[in-house]
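Lines hold sequence, tokenised fold; shown next:
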Amino acid sequence: RSTRVPVGEDQVLHLELAQDIAQHFNKKYGEFFPVPKAILSTTKKIKSLRDPSVKMSKSDPQKLATVNIADSPDEIVLKFRKAVTDFTSEVTYDPAARPGVSNLVSIHAAVTGLSIKEVLHQATGLDTAHYKMVVAESVIQKFAPIRSEIKKLQEDKSHLMKVLEDGAEKAKELAAPIYQEIRRLVGFQ
């Protein structure tokens, strides 16, 4: 029964489907489900490091195209070093004319929380080769605590299973009254 849902630009259609279902249910059985609204981040889409005309995707067959949260620092550096840019060495933001460099700027802004303008100011005087390493280091720093937690959880399987079991139990407790109310509203009780 969420009212605001954080989604990426490519999940907006899924949320619209949820909105339609909520509206149809409410029309037929009475106001029960809120119609959820999307919360979009300022970073619309992160593009592939190998082809900045398409979005970054974990299903991309090119291993160097996508940065994964669990990638090691060395893997992240390699992926950014091999990122497609152009022959102009200055760091600028022009997605139409310079999609590769603009993608790096977008990634840098996303992981640091800085605006595009602030990122460009920090990159003044850097060529794209050096800038790639700045972006790689920012990504490494952003992912470090997450990678650390993943490693910790993978090393302690019993703790991980306990977290999963507790989460499943809590989800059941939260969902049960809603499920029962839906059954009552549609006439299954």
Q: What stands out?
A: The chain has six helices and two strands.
